[in-house]
Amino acid sequence: MSIASTHRRSAPRRTAATFSALVACLSLIACSPEQAPEEGVAEEPQQTSDSDTFTMAEVEDNDAPDSCWAVMDGAVYDLTAWIDEHPGGGARIEQLCGTDASEAFDAQHGGQENPEEQLSEFEIGVLSD
User: Which CATH number describes the domain made up of 53-127?
Assistant: First the structure.
């Protein structure tokens, strides 16, 4: 048997073993609690309250597309994920980040069932007095 034919027979075993080891390593990394956020993925909102009650200052701190909070009728919403999904375009949501958007929302969607239902999915708490 030549060295070349021996090499060809062992290559699939080494490849399979290497693949198995790679999968095992990736599984461990994926389960690691210390895993850093992926590039381009928004980090958790900048929440400083201990409960689901937020101050207007906290809402104002989340005034960017990567962390977009807004207040509507006393409820606080994290609209970050909705920016790219909004049928009217992300710019309409981005202008509301960090604000009390009650008047703007009511002017655009007041009384419409579908927008109010969609909005409820993003509620994270209430505004403190």
Answer: 3.10.120.10
pLDDT, tens digit, for every residue of 60-88?
999 999 999 999 999 999 999 999 989 88
Angle between helices 113-120 and 102-109 (to 10 degrees): 140
Say if residues 83 and 65 touch (Cβ distance below 8 Å).
yes
What ranges do the domains of the chain cover? 1-34, 53-127
Residue 59: count of CB within 10 angstroms of its CB? 23
Helix, coil or strand: residue 69: strand
Residue type, 1: M
* Threshold 0.90, pTM exceeds: no
**Cβ atoms 102, 71 nearer than 8 A:** yes
CA distance 45 to 43: 6
Going from the C-alpha of 80 to that of each of 6, 12, 32, the distances in angstroms are 57, 47, 25
H-helix or E-strand containing 75? strand 75-78
